[in-house]
Design a protein that fits this description.
alpha+beta, FAD/NAD(P)-binding domain, Polyamine Oxidase, Chain A, domain 2, six-stranded mixed sheet, 11 helices, 29% helix, binds flavin-adenine dinucleotide
């Protein structure tokens, strides 16, 4: 392991929480390396997405991850992460009684919500790393060029790197073109295990009210049982502890609904989803605007078997796969994978 890299150029693909923590850990150790991060989206967060209303940017909603649950074991393993986020005042305690149908988890589990939206956790680690994320760069091809990797984006750029860590969902890794396919096929067990990784699918609907309106419910969030479409709904500003700011609501569909409609586009579902939500809660006012997303790869339902938190796909040049597929979905799983990926990267290079 070395911190004296002078020429190494590293690419971390993805702008979600795994990438942010990996980048932060690498930047601490490889101060002289050039670390780049590419994400196809327009902003940081990935599945920890916080979306803002175009009518009032103060009106925001978490469309993916909702709250953070940390088991006693992970309170120890990820103490560094929680100490950092709590001292930056990004997390606040969640009162489980605010959520109807809440599952408490193992005894001693701590639950948190974010004060400023869940993407603030991701932004925090990118800021700490001082690495500037290149948004709007979708990796399409990873090939070998001598001792380096040549990475091409859909937008037409092609750049060389000495090593890379991919933190994108595994089906999107399997869709990449170039020599990375051969790296996967070189080990049939790895190929089979990657193909077996499964994710649930859900739609998310965000209602922006732009001003503070009265939503006459006792709860902050609620799990819904026995509904054809919806599984979860939250008054998002209330969840974040912002009782006076603009009102926003998020609702997630059930997994069976997501699977039944896996090929549908969010645009084609949006009106029906809003109508159904307002039929479920008929006293709620019409929102000023709506955002609808499909999380095709939502939470990992079948992870990579007996993984160490990441996978070294190729040693020279170094390619590592990381993310919740190698642990489990949620902040803890991603943090453990990120730390494993950063350690593995440092142990496998002479940078
Ligand atoms: P991602 O966040 O998916 O990041 C991958 C990034 O890669 C994305 O930003 C994507 O744009 C980018 N990308 C993909 N392909 C390419 C490409 N070819 N080139 C460049 N960039 C690319 N977790 C919790 O802790 N609590 C919860 O309550 C919770 N609820 C959830 C509810 C929903 C609906 C969803 C979807 C997730 C939820 N999770 C929850 C899970 C949690 O959000 C994820 O485990 C975590 O965000 C995964 O982070 P990641 O960085 O590994 O992947």
């Amino acid at each position: 392991m070395s911190g004296s890299c002078t020429a190494g150029r590293i690419l971390v693909v993805g702008g979600g929480i795994t990438s942010a923590i990996t980048t932060c850990k690498l930047a601490e150790k490889l101060q002289k390396c050039n670390i780049c991060v590419w994400d196809k989206a327009r902003g940081a967060g990935g599945r920890m997405a916080t979306s803002r209303s175009s009518g009032n940017p103060q009106c925001k909603v978490d469309l993916g991850a909702q709250y953070i649950s940390c088991s006693p074991e992970n309170q120890l393993l990820n103490k560094d992460i929680y100490d950092d986020l709590i001292s930056a005042e990004l997390l606040r305690d969640l009162n489980p009684q605010d959520i109807e149908g809440f599952r408490h988890g193992e005894d001693g589990t701590k639950h948190y919500v974010t004060r400023h939206g869940v993407s603030s956790l991701v932004k925090h680690f990118f800021n700490r790393s001082k690495v500037c994320v290149d948004f709007g760069k979708c990796v399409t091809d990873v090939s070998v060029a001598g001792e380096q990797l040549s990475v091409t984006s859909k937008e037409g750029t092609q750049e060389q790197f000495d090593g890379m860590i991919l933190t994108i969902p595994i089906p999107q890794v399997l869709d990449l073109k170039g020599d990375i396919n051969q790296m996967i096929l070189n080990n049939p067990t790895v190929h089979e295990n990657l193909k077996k990784i499964e994710y649930s699918t859900r739609f998310a609907v965000g209602l922006f009210y732009d001003t503070s309106v009265d939503i006459p419910v006792e709860w902050t969030a609620k799990y819904i049982s026995g509904h054809d479409i919806y599984r979860y709904v939250a008054i998002d500003n209330k969840k974040r502890g912002d009782l006076t700011g603009p009102t926003s609501v998020v609702a997630h569909t059930s997994v069976p609904f997501g699977i039944r409609n896996i090929e549908a586009t969010p645009d084609s579902m949006k009106d029906m989803l809003v109508k159904s939500l307002l039929e479920l809660f008929p006293t709620w006012p019409q929102p000023s605007s709506v955002k609808c997303l499909k999380w095709k790869f939502s939470q990992v339902s079948r992870s990579y078997p007996s993984s160490d938190g990441c996978l070294v796909l190729n040693e020279k040049p170094l390619v590592i796969l990381a993310g919740d597929a190698f642990t489990k979905s949620g902040l803890d799983g991603c943090a453990l994978s990120a730390k494993a990926a950063a350690n593995s990267f440092l142990n496998n290079t002479s940078f």
